Amino acid sequence: MDNTRQSYLYALVSVFFWSTVATAFKLALAELDIFQLIFIASGVSTLILSVILVVQEKIKLLFQLKKKDIFLLLLIGFFNPFFYYLVLFKAYSLLPAQIAQPLNMIWPITIAVLSIPLLKQKISWKHFIAMAISFIGVVFIASQGSIQGFKNSSFIGIFLALASSLIWATYWIINVKFKGDNIVKLFTSFFFGFIFLLITVPFFSDFKFQIGIPLYSAIYVGFFEVGITYVLWLLAMQKSKNNAAIGNLVFLAPFISLIFIHFILKESIYITTFIGLAFIVGGIFFQQTIKKIPDGR
Fold first, then answer.
1. Treating both helix axes as pointing N-terminal to C-terminal, what angle do 182-204 and 228-239 enclose, rounded to 10 degrees?
2. What is the pLDDT of residue 60?
3. What is the pLDDT of residue 221?
4. Residue 5: CB partners within 8 Å, gap ≥ 6?
5. Is the separation of the CB atoms in 73 and 65 below 8 Å?
6. 52-108 pLDDT per residue, tens
7. What's the rounded Cα separation, in Å, for the pair 80 and 20?
8. On the chain, which terminus has fewer CB atoms closer than 10 Å, C or N?
9. DSSP symbols for the chain
């Protein structure tokens, strides 16, 4: 199999797993609280990434990190996994999966907004049109099928789902400042995030986990939200001759995700969810035609 086919295979496998995690979030949150879920998932991700470091013979790179690198990775670890997933999982606990998942997808728009103060970049009025298109999508999704659906929406949940994309964008802008190896960066940030959780969980939750689908779902999230799937995505980008084409495949994930949400979680998918998701993705694609922005996945 040549590199092009391998890149598409790795990318499609990554998209498949990312399409399943929204369902896994909800299954886990049926019994686990948000602190327990992120603690288990982060612990599994850290373990998987440590194994990958050993297999790729990159352990030695950890000892080459400078003090400023460690401080930066500590900050990155605070934003992701600690802060980002706590906010995201809280949103999932308050909203149907079909609402929370697409609202979290607006991170490319928020990256463009945050690049103004943080990266000192200028954006054109066309970027604001892209934001408006995506915002229309947010309104459609929040309606849950009709005007009356707004009454049933958790506006705190909607706020948190949108805020999670802002946190992810902040994380990614800080993340690109580290110029070292990607796997080292991911492992170290998740290690620090896991330490934050070890300190925090006793104050807000506990370490009592019952054997069952919620626990297995949390472990699944640790394997396939970040750990293995992220490495497959990196391989896809490394082997690809057209990173833009590979990168756009990630936008298949929220649409495929609705299939799992419907058949596993038994949620009735609103037509407004499809319309809203189309507007959000359309706004993101329009923005990408204007000016290249950092890849946030």
1. 160
2. 92
3. 96
4. none
5. yes
6. 999 999 999 999 999 899 999 999 999 999 999 999 999 999 999 999 998 888 877
7. 20
8. N
9. --HHHHHHHHHHHHHHHHHHHHHHHHHHHTTS-HHHHHHHHHHHHHHHHHHHHHHTT-HHHHTT--HHHHHHHHHHHIIIIIIHHHHHHHHHHHS-HHHHHHHGGGHHHHHHHHHHHHH-----HHHHHHHHHHHHHHHHHHTTTSTTHHHHS-HHHHHHHHHHHHHHHHHHHHHTT--S-HHHHHHHHHHHHHHHHHHHHHHH--S---SSHHHHHHHHHIIIIIIHHHHHHHHHHHH-S-HHHHHHGGGGHHHHHHHHHHHHS-PPPPHHHHHHHHHHHHHHHHHHHHS------
Reference 137, options 104, 183, 166, 114; nearest CA is 104
Whole-Å CA distances, 247 to 15, 144, 282: 10, 29, 15
Which pTM does this prediction carry? Answer: 0.88
pLDDT band at 291 (very low <50, low <70, confident <90, very high): low
Give exposure, 51-89, as e/b (b: 16+ Cβ within 10 Å). ebbeeeeeeebbeebeeebeebbbbbbbbbbbbbbbbbb
Please state, in angstroms and as integers, the Cα–Cα distance from residue 244 to each residue in 140, 247, 269, 279, following that order: 28, 5, 30, 20
C-alpha to C-alpha distance for 237 and 15, rounded to whole angstroms: 13
The answer to whether the CB of 254 falls within 8 A of the CB of 119 is no
> Which residues, 6+ apart, have CB-to-CB distance to 54 below 8 Å?
none
The answer to whether the CB of 15 falls within 8 A of the CB of 249 is yes
CB 100 within 8 A of CB 263: no
Q: Which amino acid is at 297?
A: R
Q: Which amino acid belongs to residue 67?
A: K
Name residue 131's amino acid. M
Q: Which two tokens stand for residue 218?
A: 């949390």
* Measured distance CA(113)–CA(297) in Å, rounded: 17
